[in-house]
Amino acid sequence: ALSLLAIIIYLFALWFTQATTSHVTGSADTIASAWEASQSSDLLQRYWSTVPRSMFTLFQAITGGISWIEVALPLSDLNFMDRSR
Questions:
Q1: C-alpha to C-alpha distance for 35 and 8, rounded to whole angstroms
Q2: Using N-to-C axis directions, what is the helix angle for 34-48 and 2-26, rounded to 10°?
Q3: Cα 69 from Cα 73, distance rounded (Å)
Q4: Residue 12 is inside which H or E element, if any?
Q5: pLDDT on residue 37
Q6: What's this model's pTM, rounded to 2 decimal places?
Q7: Whose CA is closest to 36, among 68, 71, 74?
Q8: 12 and 59 in contact (C-beta within 8 Å)?
Q9: More reliable by pLDDT, 45 or 35
């Protein structure tokens, strides 16, 4: 059961990290203001910038170490289905 949970966390961490990397490197101009862009980018870097960091964020969210809303809001700016980049 734990290995299945680890695999699921790993797969979602890969997905979130890839989306974050694509967003941060390619589309800072899609956010309305410079302040919102820097705020969003800081939070994305804090929670989703690497696969291990993303896995840790997901683990914390699952176990109650961090609020879901705190880690989900930065992801709301991302387009997970955009494969044009």
A1: 34
A2: 150
A3: 6
A4: helix 2-26
A5: 59
A6: 0.77
A7: 74
A8: no
A9: 45
> Any idea of the CA torsion for 48, 49, 55, 61, to the nearest 10 degrees?
-20
Mean pLDDT on 56-64: 95
Distance of alpha carbon 10 from alpha carbon 25, whole angstroms: 22
- 6 pLDDT band, cuts 50/70/90, is very high
Question: What is the rounded average pLDDT for all residues in the chain?
Answer: 82
Residue 13 is encoded by which pair of tokens? Answer: 């961490």
Cβ density class 10-23: b for 16+ within 10 Å, e for less: eeebeebbebbebb
- Alpha helical stretches, state H, 27-72: 34-48, 51-63, 68-72
Token pair, residue 46, equals 């804090």
Q: Give the residue from 12, 8, 19 showing the smallest Cα distance to 83.
A: 19
Three-class SS of residue 73? coil
